[in-house]
Amino acid sequence: MKLADFKYPLDRNLIAQEPLEDRAQGKLLILKRKSGLILHHKFSELKKFLYPGDILVLNNTKVFKARLIGHKESGAKIEILLLEKENELWKAMIFPARKVKPEMKIFFGDNVFGEVKRKEFEKWLISFNQPDDEIIRKFGIVPLPHYIKRKPELKDEVYYQTVYAKKIGSIAAPTAGLHFTETIIEDLKNYGVKIAEITLHIGPGTFKPIRTEEIEKHRMEPEYFEVSRETTEEINKAKRVIAVGTSVVRTLESIAGENQRVDWGPISGRTELFIFPGYKFKVVDCLITNFHLPCSTPLLLVCAFATRELIFNAYNEAMEKKYRFLSYGDAMLII
């Protein structure tokens, strides 16, 4: 399967640069897979398309302020993207990469610095001379995606985070969840929709471009996930499983069971599951997701879920109707 088949002409003016003040007032495109029918609603109307007995599965990961801007002793600017902590060292990406070498110090303030230790598997390991949580709190910046062409602001600490975020560990938000408010979640519960949570910490793989023309040769970066016993029990009892975001899809499909929807929890590990057209879904019945970049792994996943033809039809209609795309953009529900 060729990567070029998943290109589409995204108007850069449709890439949302700002969050909506009211999360739930974004647009919601409904795509019905059986008929190909496309409907247009507000996200606040989501309940119209759910039923009592459905289960809505959320990713409760929490984004941390993973970007640090510092400088070398020479004064040259250095940017760090923290990924995850291993023992006492942080795995990180450092830019510009050509200026990085072991034992180099990167300064953030008076007597506050990180020291580059070594490189492992294309990532740098660094340590800090002060408690890392204090450095992240004081100097960290919200890691907005590269296609948001402005500097992060204080509001992003609120809006680039789901209202149900709990477990710190992501460098990118599970963006399908950004549309939910506490009111919507409570209303769905009262209506009879079950709410369950998993955790998948989103890493740099979410932005990693596919560099192979044959998509089957692409490899995902492993991402840590965990699913509780309670969540697996609720999923196995549900009428329909509605995944909120591609990270939830990848987690649930990674723990698919043979005699039930998913294996019994608690389950944790790392997943490298790459879902592209031809994949047979075992767990997920419906999907809430944003509109994704051309040739990206999330786009391939939604094409696998609803076929390339239906997704591209929906994207074309969304562009005609000026939907907002990508992280701070509008949503679609595929049923």
From TrEMBL:
Keyword terms of this UniProt record: Cytoplasm, Glycosyltransferase, Isomerase, Queuosine biosynthesis, S-adenosyl-L-methionine, Transferase
Pathway(s) per entry: tRNA modification; tRNA-queuosine biosynthesis
Catalytic activity: 7-aminomethyl-7-carbaguanosine(34) in tRNA + S-adenosyl-L-methionine = epoxyqueuosine(34) in tRNA + adenine + L-methionine + 2 H(+)
Coiled-coil zones: none
Predominant place of localization: cytoplasm
Recorded GO CC terms: cytoplasm
Keyword Cytoplasm: yes
The UniProt record lists the keyword Nucleus: no
Pfam families: Queuosine_synth
GO MF entries: S-adenosylmethionine:tRNA ribosyltransferase-isomerase activity
Recorded family membership: Belongs to the QueA family.
Subunit structure of this chain's protein: Monomer.
Protein name: S-adenosylmethionine:tRNA ribosyltransferase-isomerase
Lineage, broadest ranks: Bacteria, Bacteria division WOR-3
Gene name per UniProt: queA
